[in-house]
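Write out the 3D structure for:
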Amino acid sequence: MDALSIQRQTQDPITGDGSTFSEVKADSDCTEGIGPQVQLPEDILHRIHALMPMRDAAQAACMSHAFLCSWRYYPNLILSADSLGIKEYGSKYDEITRDFISRVDHIMQNHSGMGVKEFKLQSYPCSTIDPIIVDRWIQVAITPGIKKFELSLFELGDIKYSFPCSFLSGVRGSSIKSLKLAGCSLRSVAKTGFMSSLTNLDFQSVDITGDELFYFLSNSCALEKISLWNCDNIICLKIPCQLQKLNMLSVLDCQTLEMIDSNAPNLSTFSYSGHQIHISLGHASQVRKIRFHCDYSSNAFYYAITKLPLIASNLQTLFLSTSDEIINIPTAFGKFLQLKNLEIMFYAAKFSQEFDFCSLISILDASPTLETFIFRIGVPTIRHDSIIEDPLGNSSHPRRLSDCFHDNLKNVMITGFCSAKSMIELTIHIMQKTKSLECLTLDTTRGHDRRFASIDRCLRLNEEALVEAGKAQTAIQRYIEGRVPAAVNLKVIEPCSKCL
C-alpha cells in the first residue's frame, strides 16, 4: 500500500477527523526510484515510537502504516487540553468539553489497551464530563503492566467523581508504581486488593476517610512516598508499621485533621502544613528533614519550636514558615542536637513592628551543631524602630544577649534585611559568637537567591520595601561592616535596576 493510499484511509489518531499531512504525498514522490525501504523489526519500531511525545507519535501514525499499527500499543497516554491541541481561550466551556471528550474517546477507542505504561488524564478546564465516560476511559487504560496512573479531574461543585476502586484489583493494579488522584472520591477501598508494586501515592482534594486510607496503605507495603493535600475528610491519619520502605510523608492543608500517628520505622522526611495538631512519628530515629508551615495561628509555630526537638531527636534539616504575625520566637524546651541546616521564613502581609529579631538567638542556642542558618522576611516593610531614625540608641553598645558560642556555624543568610535595632544586634551577636563563620549574606531584597532565574528578574519590591532597603544599606555601612572579622566573607545584596 503506497503512502497516498494510507493518507486517504487513515484518520488523525487525535482529532479523528480523517485529516493528515499534505507532506505525505510529497514524501512518497521523493522516495520513488530510491529502492526498497528498510523494514525495521516490529519491536524496534515500537521502541522508537514509544520514545516520541504523544502528539509526535500520533502524527507519525498518520504518515506511516507501520506506526499506525504501533499506535494501538503506544505506552504513554498523556491526555490534557494542551497535549490534545485544544485552545482553552476564545471558546465556550461546553465547546471545549465536547471537543475534549471527542478526542479522548477517539484515542481510547483506537488503543488496544495493551502496552500502556503511563496514563495521565487532566480534565481542566472541562467540568461536566459524565462519570460513565471517565469509567470507560479508565477501564481501557488500567491493564496489566501499567506503571504510572494519574487522574486529575477539574470540578465545579460538591459532588466528586467516585473512582472505581475495583479497577485497581487483581493483576491490573498490582503493577502500578505511581498513583495520583485529584478531585475525586474513594469509596469501597476494600475492592482495590493488594497493590504490591505501589511506591508513590499522591492524593489531592480526594474525599477519603482516615479508616479507608489506613486500609489502602496497609495493602501497599512497598510505598516509599505519600503525599496528601487538601484531603478534608481525614480526621486521624494513621501510617501502619507495615510500610517499612516509607521515607517521605507530606500532609498539607487537610482542614479537619486532628492527629498524625506514624509507625513507619524508616521515615526520613516529613512535611506538614496546617494548624496545631497532635503529631507522633513513632520512634522517629530516622527522621532527618522536616518542613513545617503554619498558616492558621501563631500557636502552631510555637508548637513547632517547642515540640519538634522531642518528636524528631535526630533532625538534621528544619524549614519553618508562617504567614501569621509573630511577636517573638518562643524558647525551645529541648535541643536540636543533630540539626545542621535551619531556615525560618516569615511572610505576613504586615510584619509585626514589635518583633524582636534577637529572639531568634534562642533557636541558635538550642542547635549546637548548626552549620547553616537562613532567615527570610518574605514581605519587607518599613520598621518604625529603625536604627537610622535613632542613631544614639543602643546600637553602639548592644545588650548582652547570650553567652553561648556557635562553634559549627559557617553560613548565615538574612533576606529582607532591615534597619531595625534588634536586627543589627542579632547580626553583631552572630559575628561575635561564631568563630567558625565563613560567609555572612545580608540581602535587603526579598531573596536574591530565590529570584525568577528563568526570566532573570527578582521578586518585586513595593515602594515601601525599597525605602526600607535603602535604610538597611545605610545601617550595614554604619554598624556592621566595621565589625566583620577578616575571615568572614560579607555579601550585601541591594535591589537591582529591575526592582527600582
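Confidence is low (pLDDT under 50) at residues 1-10, 19-36.
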